[in-house]
Design brief:
This is Esterase family protein. It comes from Paraburkholderia pallida. One of its GO terms (molecular function) is acyltransferase activity, transferring groups other than amino-acyl groups. InterPro entries: AB_hydrolase_fold (IPR029058), Esterase-like (IPR000801), Mycobacterial_A85_antigen (IPR050583). Keywords: Signal. The chain contains nine helices and eight strands. By secondary structure, the chain is α/β, with parallel strands linked by helices. The chain starts with a helix and ends in a 10-residue tail after the last helix. An eight-stranded mixed β-sheet has the order 1-2-4-3-5-6-7-8, sandwiched between helices. It has one domain: Alpha/Beta hydrolase fold, catalytic domain (Rossmann fold). Helices cover 38% and strands 17% of the residues.
Length: 294
């Protein structure tokens, strides 16, 4: 009787350990870290939250000395710094490619420009200069244009390309997902005239900032460029116009149209291809994820 009583707990323990082992094997191995930081803006006299995703080996590799490339990912109109992590599994891409991901807050309708019509909306300076400086000062980044990229969706796609063109010393790669590359098609967007001005009285400002009109700026910018848009997206035609102009100018770039519309389903799929593109660009510039870079 005593022997039988002793065997039962051992069998139960063995079954428990086997179940626990199987559970560990089936659980996702992603161990990225997500942090919310407050980044001050001297240009706008306030601070904004941002999401920072660190790869799982950020605190392990090289006793905390390894440095990482950074990809800045911008949200769309009406969104916030939390959009990408709330609606996609973007964090696992930091683990897979050994990169940092930074998602700053760009306001609800800032279009990531320094607005001459609203002094409180200076988001190009904020994202293109102040956020980059803060991240480089507070995290172990590879602080060079060759290992820094920027992309975004919709309004954020416009902003990413605009900022990359205006800050070529900061970003060596840029992308746009479902980008509003011609804001003149968005005149009815609530609040857009607050930063762009009245479209009738300030048509030249709208035109000057439209990415489709400034395609020639990419000719000598030496930016690794990737653009994609869903075939059912209302912005697909303006993206095709930009693509055709870049081809005519001989500007190297990746361009893709995939099934889908202006939805998180499309964006969560598209970001995987863009991060792969950027990681490839970083490697072509000499970075290797297994190298210890100080």
């Amino acid at each position: 009787m005593q022997t039988a009583l002793a065997i039962r707990p051992l069998k139960s323990l063995a079954l428990f350990l086997a179940s626990l082992f199987a559970l560990c094997l089936s659980a996702p191995s992603w161990a990225f870290q997500t942090r919310i930081v407050s980044i001050p803006s001297a240009a706008m006299h306030r601070a904004f939250d941002a999401t920072v995703v660190l790869p799982d080996d950020y605190d392990a590799r090289g006793s905390g000395s390894a440095r990482y490339p950074v990809i800045y990912v911008l949200h769309g109109s009406g969104g916030s710094y939390a959009d990408w992590t709330s609606n996609t599994r973007i964090g696992k891409l930091a683990d897979h490619y050994h990169v940092m991901l930074v998602m700053p807050d760009g306001g609800h309708e800032s279009w990531y420009i320094d607005s001459p019509f609203d002094s409180s909306s200076q988001y190009e300076t904020y994202v293109g200069t102040e956020v980059v400086s803060y991240i480089d000062a507070h995290f172990r980044t590879l602080a060079s244009r060759q290992t820094r990229a920027i992309t975004g969706l919709s309004m954020g796609g416009f902003g990413a390309l605009r900022i990359a063109l205006d800050h070529p010393q900061a970003f060596g790669a840029a992308g746009s997902i479902s980008g509003a590359v011609d804001p003149r098609n968005c005149e009815d967007e609530p609040g857009i005239d607050r930063v762009f001005g009245n479209p009738a009285r300030h048509a030249d400002f709208w035109t000057r900032n439209a990415i489709v009109e400034g395609a020639g700026s990419f000719e000598h910018a030496h930016i690794a460029l990737t653009i994609d848009c869903g075939v059912d997206d209302s912005f697909v035609q303006s993206n095709r116009v930009l693509h055709d102009k870049l081809i005519a100018l001989g500007v190297p770039h990746d361009y893709a149209e995939r099934p889908g519309g202006h939805t998180w389903s499309y964006w969560s799929n598209a970001i995987r291809y863009q991060v792969l593109f950027f990681a490839t660009s970083f490697k072509q510039n000499g970075w290797h994820p297994n190298a210890q870079q100080a």
